[in-house]
């Protein structure tokens, strides 16, 4: 579904059978822990059971599949909103001696392989978190954005976009609700939500009713400056 609020939902980003398999593995793993927010454990703000799967060998295939699904839709998001990529940076593209500034018009002419290469140069995937919200009790009712300055490594300040893959539906409510846009995104199995990470897209996760809600969620982050620009001269 296309919109003009920078909130995009890509239906069928992950097949329904793959989503069901992830849920089964979540329940069989016994690895879930109380869900945290940036400041720690505050169940009155976020009430969930989470598994951080990034870098965990047993979950490597799931992490790779989810990351690939996000990357494919990220390219579509950037083609719709090219300034997601080019507004923060003065990018150039082309062969040595024939390079040109990458503006919105030039980006539109790039083939998929070229755009994919630029995306991977500028951005990196965040840590993937699987989450379960119990019916009638779970949720993330606190209005929040994804930028958070407490992290000493500053990774949370490198977050550019948020994403959520809904692993199931079949329950009521449980929407991702955006404050300023006055928009609720209902969960649909396999759909992927992408939106900006900053305060303009302050949001919350509403409580599911009549069934548990499962999601995978993370961020698209900028690569470190030394990776994009190279290390400064001594």
Task: Pick out its properties.
234 residues, 16 strands, Jelly Rolls, 6 helices, alpha+beta, four-stranded antiparallel beta sheet, 26% helix
CATH fold-level topology: Jelly Rolls
Question: What class would the helix/strand composition place it in?
Answer: alpha+beta
How many angstroms does the end-to-end distance come to? Answer: 49 Å
Helical amount: 25-40%
**Radius of gyration over all CA atoms, rounded:** 18 Å
Q: What number of structural domains do the residues give?
A: 1
Uncertain spans, ≥5 residues at pLDDT below 50?
A: none
- Number of DSSP strands? 16
Task: Give the mean pLDDT.
Answer: 93
Protein name: 2OG-Fe(II) oxygenase
Domain Prolyl 4-hydroxylase alpha subunit Fe(2+) 2OG dioxygenase: 129-220
InterPro entries: Pro_4_hyd_alph_FE2OG_OXY
Organism: Arenimonas caeni
Please sum up the structure shown.
The protein has 234 residues and is of the alpha+beta class.
Describe the secondary structure blueprint for this structure.
Blueprint: E1 8-10, H1 16-29, E2 33-34, E3 49-52, H2 60-80, H3 83-86, E4 92-93, E5 100-101, H4 104-109, H5 112-122, E6 123-125, E7 129-133, E8 140-144, E9 159-166, E10 172-173, E11 176-178, E12 183-185, E13 192-196, E14 203-205, E15 208-209, E16 213-222, H6 225-229
Antiparallel strand pairs: 1-13, 2-3, 3-7, 4-5, 6-16, 7-16, 8-14, 9-13, 9-16, 10-15, 11-12, 11-14
């Amino acid at each position: 579904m296309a919109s003009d609020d920078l909130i995009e939902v890509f239906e069928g980003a992950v097949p329904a059978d793959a989503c069901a398999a992830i849920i089964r593995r979540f329940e069989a793993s016994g690895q879930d822990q109380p869900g945290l927010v940036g400041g720690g454990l505050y169940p009155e703000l976020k009430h969930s059971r989470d598994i951080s799967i990034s870098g965990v060998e047993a979950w490597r295939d799931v992490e790779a599949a989810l990351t690939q699904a996000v990357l494919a839709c990220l390219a579509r998001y950037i083609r719709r909103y090219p300034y997601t990529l080019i507004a923060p940076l003065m990018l150039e593209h082309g062969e040595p001696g024939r390079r040109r500034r990458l503006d919105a018009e030039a980006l539109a002419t790039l083939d998929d392989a070229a755009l994919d290469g630029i995306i991977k140069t500028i951005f990196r995937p965040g840590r993937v978190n699987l989450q379960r919200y119990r019916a009638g009790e779970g949720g993330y009712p606190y209005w929040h954005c994804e930028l958070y300055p407490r992290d000493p490594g500053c990774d949370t300040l490198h977050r550019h976009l948020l994403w959520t893959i809904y692993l199931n539906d079949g329950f009521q409510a449980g929407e991702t609700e955006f404050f300023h846009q006055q928009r609720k995104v209902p969960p649909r199995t396999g759909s992927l939500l992408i939106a900006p990470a900053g305060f303009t897209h302050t949001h919350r996760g509403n409580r599911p009713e009549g069934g548990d809600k499962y999601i995978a969620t993370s961020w698209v982050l900028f690569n470190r400056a030394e990776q994009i620009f190279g290390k400064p001269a001594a």
